[in-house]
Amino acid sequence: MASSLTLKETFFISHGSPTLSIDESLPARHFLKGFRERFLNHQKPNSILVISAHWETSEPTVNSIRGRHDTIHDFYGFPKPMYQLKYPAPGAPELAKRVKDVLMASGFATVYEDKKRGLDHGAWVPLMLMYPEADIPVCQLSVQPNRDGTYHYNLGRALASLKDEGVLIIGSGSATHNLRALSSSKNVASWALEFDNWLKDALLSGRHQDVNNYDVKAPHAKVAHPMPEHIYPLHVALGAAGEGVNGELIHHSWDLGALSYASYKFSSLKKSS
Fold it and tell me: Which sequence ranges form a coiled-coil region, renumbered to this chain (predicted)?
């Protein structure tokens, strides 16, 4: 998978509600539509690795798909047009094998391959806006909700060298994710603001250990994330950026009174080893 394209950045995208796929009023939708021009200068990655909050397994698992991906509509009670959307991106079996190999070489003893699973909405909703042509091979990597932030950061560290092979690494989750606390209020809940601001300050000031231990360091951590699967993709993206990482907030908006669309770019000036 050698390539002249080397990427220095990884990204964490808050994918918010599945309605991002159709709702033109959401600012995050327009942010994602302008993503490749703004952040990649129209450079086309060789392949894309998405760590999605919507694929939970007990051990790291990659989907190794030959041919086109199925589109998984893993949400309920939304407008009918959303269930008709397709994102038939090519699979990336070679990337899946590379991910498995580098993880196992880094001490992750068990890494599974899934040869049937398509793209869940944590992957295809942002990708259909970022790369609507669906012509870049995509591989998904699962999260392990039974593990902690440091584990997922180390998972990312093991993947850092893939950037040198032209792989765009995206963590897709949510900066805040408490579905029971969503409302029609125009005012953002105070706990959500406090957690979101803490996360931004920690990432922009390089307090990565605090981010890895957000569950004990951050205010209202258990309210912001009753379950951890939507923040773990951030830890993977942060780890995959490599050494000397600079965090940058690249989009911020709110919806439904408590759902943060905060998205980050992680850059490293040091070449992956």
Answer: none
Q: SS3 of 149, please?
A: helix
Beta strands per DSSP E along the chain: 9-14, 47-56, 61-63, 112-114, 138-143, 167-173, 245-251, 254-255, 259-260, 263-268
- 137 in helix, strand or coil? coil
Ranges of H-type helices in 74-115: 93-105
* Cα end-to-end distance, the chain, whole Å: 16
Q: Cα–Cα–Cα angle for 227, 122, 143, nearest 5°?
A: 50
Distance separating alpha carbons of residues 199 and 193, to the nearest angstrom: 10
Q: What phi and psi values does residue 148 have, to the nearest 5 degrees?
A: -115, 180
Rg from Cα positions in the chain:
17
Backbone angles phi, psi at 40, to 5 degrees: -115, 5
Q: Counting Cβ atoms within 10 Å, is residue 181 exposed (0-12), middle (13-18) or buried (19+)? A: middle
